[in-house]
């Protein structure tokens, strides 16, 4: 593991300077409500995944057709737009940027199958297939971190590098953490009485929405959350509680950037640092903030994530991609 000392400008050779100028010529539809608030968030569209179902993506072109692709994987109870709205504009200067709504989240794929993180990893690769993207950089936040790890574990030929944000190798080490995940399962099973779906919906809204400053932004966020299948979100929490990559995380053989919010209490910083130390190629990028840093400090978050992605892509371009030779 290394600590990042990268100048944000040093990795720009991932995409040539001359190619950057072509970005303005490539038009794409923006979410007009977010554009009015100053955020360049793609409007998004439904995408059919043959044999799997229909999901929802937000897809922003890069500065050229040869730009690397980053695939953004959101956290528990969020959506691709909600988790990643600060980063689309900055990342699209260097990359094609694709964000997906995971199963049961937002407008993501609906399935009668129980939620599994491995299915989400396979969904991500299916999205790349549908878009004609051969290789990409999975960028995972919180729950998206295990999904990104599983993309490498299950489909390593497709992965150029990894960027892991506010995440861990596992989420269930201490008694308090085990109780949190068990409690969600009891709620959805109705063991605590009342209407568990409404209770969890309110809990998610109260956790995520107030951190967003502008009233118009909060209203947009509520509409994003209204698409959730709450029972699937709870199944996702339980799946996250069972997850561990401890046995194989050290085998990752592509460049990795690990973004760590320095005041994170939901996924303790010690766990995030352990994750970075477990991966020989990891470079650590601290960002000041809590687990909700993307909403509370969106500009700082976007800047650090961009640096993390640029360094990962630059290292992949310079040193080759071991997964491609498997």
What are the salient characteristics of this protein?
single chain, 326 residues, alpha/beta, Rossmann fold, nine-stranded mixed sheet, 13 helices, 14% strand, globular
Strand order, sheet with most strands: 1-9-8-7-6-4-5-3-2
> Span between N and C termini?
24 Å
> How many alpha or pi helices?
13
Structural class designation = alpha/beta
> Any idea of the CATH topology?
Rossmann fold
Order of helices and strands: EHHEEEHHEHEHEHHHHEHEHH
In terms of DSSP E residues, the strand content is: 5-15%
Shape: globular
Identify the CATH architecture. 3-Layer(aba) Sandwich
Return Rg in Å: 18 Å
Task: Extract low-pLDDT stretches.
Answer: 5-27, 182-193
Mean pLDDT: 85
Number of domains: 1
CATH homologous superfamily (4th level) name: Alpha/Beta hydrolase fold, catalytic domain
For this entry, what is the oligomeric state of its chains?
A: single chain
Bin the helical content.
Answer: 40-55%
The total strand number stands at 9
Biggest sheet features: 9 strands, mixed
Report on this model:
This protein has about 325 residues and is of the alpha/beta class. It has a single domain, classed as Rossmann fold, CATH 3.40.50.1820. About 40% of the residues lie in helices and about 15% in strands. Helix 6 links the parallel strand 6 and strand 7. About 10% of the residues have low confidence.
């Amino acid at each position: 593991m290394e600590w990042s000392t990268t100048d944000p400008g040093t990795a720009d050779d991932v995409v040539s300077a001359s190619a950057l100028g072509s970005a303005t010529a490539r038009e794409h539809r923006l979410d007009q409500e977010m554009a009015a608030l100053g955020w360049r968030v793609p409007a998004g569209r439904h995408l059919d995944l043959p044999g799997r179902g229909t999901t929802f993506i937000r897809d922003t072109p890069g500065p050229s057709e040869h730009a690397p692709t980053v695939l953004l994987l959101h956290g528990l109870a969020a959506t691709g737009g909600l988790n990643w709205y600060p980063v689309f504009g900055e990342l699209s200067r260097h990359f094609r940027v694709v964000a997906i709504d995971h199963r049961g989240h937002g407008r993501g794929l609906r399935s009668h199958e129980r939620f599994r993180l491995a299915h989400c990893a396979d969904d991500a690769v299916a999205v790349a297939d549908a878009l004609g993207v051969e290789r990409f950089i999975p960028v995972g936040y919180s729950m998206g971190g295990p999904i990104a790890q599983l993309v490498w574990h299950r489909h390593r030929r497709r992965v150029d590098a990894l960027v892991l944000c506010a995440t861990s190798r596992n989420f269930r080490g201490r008694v308090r953490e085990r109780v949190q995940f068990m409690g969600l399962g009891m709620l959805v099973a109705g063991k605590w009485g009342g209407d568990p779906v409404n209770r969890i919906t309110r809990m998610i809204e109260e956790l995520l929405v107030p951190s967003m400053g502008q009233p118009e932004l909060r209203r947009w966020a509520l509409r994003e959350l209204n698409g959730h299948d709450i029972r699937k979100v709870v199944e996702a929490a339980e799946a996250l509680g069972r997850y561990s990559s401890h046995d194989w995380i050290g085998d990752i053989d592509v460049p990795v950037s690990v973004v760590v919010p320095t005041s994170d209490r939901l996924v303790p910083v010690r766990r995030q640092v352990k994750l970075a130390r477990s991966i020989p190629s990891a470079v650590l990028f601290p960002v000041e903030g809590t687990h909700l840093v993307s909403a509370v400090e969106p500009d700082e978050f976007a800047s650090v994530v961009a640096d993390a992605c640029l360094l990962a892509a630059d290292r992949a371009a310079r040193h080759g991609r071991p997964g491609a030779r498997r």
